[in-house]
Task: inverse folding
């Protein structure tokens, strides 16, 4: 990963931590910039807008989460129903415990509603 990509990931990870910790309330790009000790305009070198950062956060999360789902899919076919449920629960729980900022971010009522309204990115409709 090059220096620019490393910085983008750093911004994304910081956004998850900051916005998840605040449940997406009273949090702005300014808070992210301050945490990273960069200017707010510097953030715009990496992301066109707050919405662009959010879209990149979703993509980053999915890149992290898909391997967990792949692992579950590969292994539950070999298990009984009860073992499948236990395995699924364990893998999901472990993922979010190891990535608590994702859990905090996605469990926020405000974030949840903003994701629900972003049907194009999620690829589904209500």
Result:
């Amino acid at each position: 990963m090059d220096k620019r990509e490393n910085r983008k990931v750093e911004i994304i990870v910081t956004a998850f931590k900051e916005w998840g910790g605040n449940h997406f309330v009273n949090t702005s790009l300014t808070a992210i910039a301050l945490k990273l000790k960069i200017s707010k305009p510097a953030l715009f070198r990496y992301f066109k807008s707050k919405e662009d950062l959010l879209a990149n956060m979703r993509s980053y999360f999915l890149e992290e989460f898909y391997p967990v789902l792949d692992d579950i899919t590969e292994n539950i076919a070999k298990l009984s129903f009860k073992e499948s449920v236990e395995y699924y629960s364990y893998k999901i729980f472990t993922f979010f415990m190891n990535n608590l900022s994702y859990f905090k971010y996605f469990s926020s009522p405000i974030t949840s509603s903003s994701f629900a309204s972003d049907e194009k990115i999620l690829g589904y409709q209500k």
